Amino acid sequence: MALFGYTALKGDLRVAGEIEAASQGEATLALRRKGLSPLSVEARTGAAGVAGPGPGLFPSRGIGTKDVTKLTRQLASLLGSGLTLSRSLALLARQSEAKRARGVIDALGEKLRSGATFSEALAAFPREFDALYVAMIRAGEAGGRMEEAAERLAGIREASEEIAAKFKSALIYPAFMFLAMSGAVIVLVTFVVPRFGQLFADMGQAMPLPTRMLLDAVAVFQAYWWLLPAVLIPGWLGLRHYAASSEGRYALDAAVLKIPLAGRLVHELSLSRSCRTLGGMLQSGVPLLTALSSAAAVAGNTVVARCLSGSIKNVQEGKKLGDSIRTIGGFTPYAEEMAAVGEEAGSLDRMMLRVADTYDRDTETLLKGLTSLIEPLMILVMGGVVAFIVLAMLLPIFQMNLMAG
């Protein structure tokens, strides 16, 4: 047993004390059983650490996030069928086809055999298993609910990946159409229009206004095309440099949220990730401050992340989470209200997961709406450009036919 110092909320009161438990997760669960809402739980006595991966034990390259999600889901299924953790890992290593994934699982099994806990083994490989992953597994170990912890982790990761996949698939067709139409315009402007221009010039015929506009635009482009990369490349590099600073990133992310429809989509995607992470960690017995830190890390938008990370200090000072979120800003009114109600009712975890589910459904609807809006708009714009080019080239021919007639 180890001694842990804690700070927690009991109603509106902030309390502090010490508790004996086998692990941090067990201490957190014990405090919850006493009706407290843990803010932080820290060991008073040092514990032996776990050495990182040695040479040859772990592949030099990590494994992908989808592979980690797949392994987590399979691990939850094996643990649910009654297998021990060691046997589950050994089975996963045998059936894994990817060499890198097999190396990860073998390394974890080796650390378990050397006496480390599973969370300690995972913590030795931060590239593959982030703080959220380790904290939820640690809480599952403490409460003897490893299967539930793995199940929640797999659910969080799968939901995030599903939304990301839908977002990418919604953009594939508009992107392909844009590239195809842009290619057609470039071919027309680069090869077709100059030849027609030379033909019209040789005829010495006065050309219609649309034709003159097109030929002048092509002449300017051919003469000064180098200005385009000369302006875009430094501009892009400057924007990246600006975005690398914390204030620059915050300003850009705040500007993105103000874009009609697209800003709402980005905002709700960020809130969905953060609220699902926060709710899942709280359900697993992770202290509130740790859960807030992990939720901020996965937000993907600094406006939402700053709201969550700023709330950590406020909660440490005894303020309510709902009040802090309202004061800092970054959440939607719906998410703010759900956080406040959940905190008052002692069901913050369930309320945050409900917010995530709501925004997952909303983002799917928004994606469909944006796709249905972008596709006809792109056809209209690009089709209009192509139609203008074709019309500008055909008008002189029609004019010659009329004169000949």
UniProtKB/TrEMBL annotation:
<keyword id="KW-0812">Transmembrane</keyword>
<comment type="similarity">
    <text>Belongs to the GSP F family.</text>
</comment>
<dbReference type="GO" id="GO:0015628">
    <property type="term" value="P:protein secretion by the type II secretion system"/>
</dbReference>
<feature type="transmembrane region" description="Helical">
    <location>
        <begin position="170"/>
        <end position="193"/>
    </location>
</feature>
<keyword id="KW-0997">Cell inner membrane</keyword>
<dbReference type="GO" id="GO:0005886">
    <property type="term" value="C:plasma membrane"/>
</dbReference>
<dbReference type="InterPro" id="IPR042094">
    <property type="entry name" value="T2SS_GspF_sf"/>
</dbReference>
<protein>
    <submittedName>
        <fullName>Type II secretion system F domain protein</fullName>
    </submittedName>
</protein>
<dbReference type="InterPro" id="IPR003004">
    <property type="entry name" value="GspF/PilC"/>
</dbReference>
<feature type="transmembrane region" description="Helical">
    <location>
        <begin position="377"/>
        <end position="398"/>
    </location>
</feature>
<dbReference type="InterPro" id="IPR018076">
    <property type="entry name" value="T2SS_GspF_dom"/>
</dbReference>
<feature type="transmembrane region" description="Helical">
    <location>
        <begin position="213"/>
        <end position="239"/>
    </location>
</feature>
<dbReference type="Pfam" id="PF00482">
    <property type="entry name" value="T2SSF"/>
</dbReference>
<keyword id="KW-1133">Transmembrane helix</keyword>
<feature type="domain" description="Type II secretion system protein GspF">
    <location>
        <begin position="72"/>
        <end position="194"/>
    </location>
</feature>
<keyword id="KW-0472">Membrane</keyword>
<feature type="domain" description="Type II secretion system protein GspF">
    <location>
        <begin position="275"/>
        <end position="396"/>
    </location>
</feature>
<keyword id="KW-1003">Cell membrane</keyword>
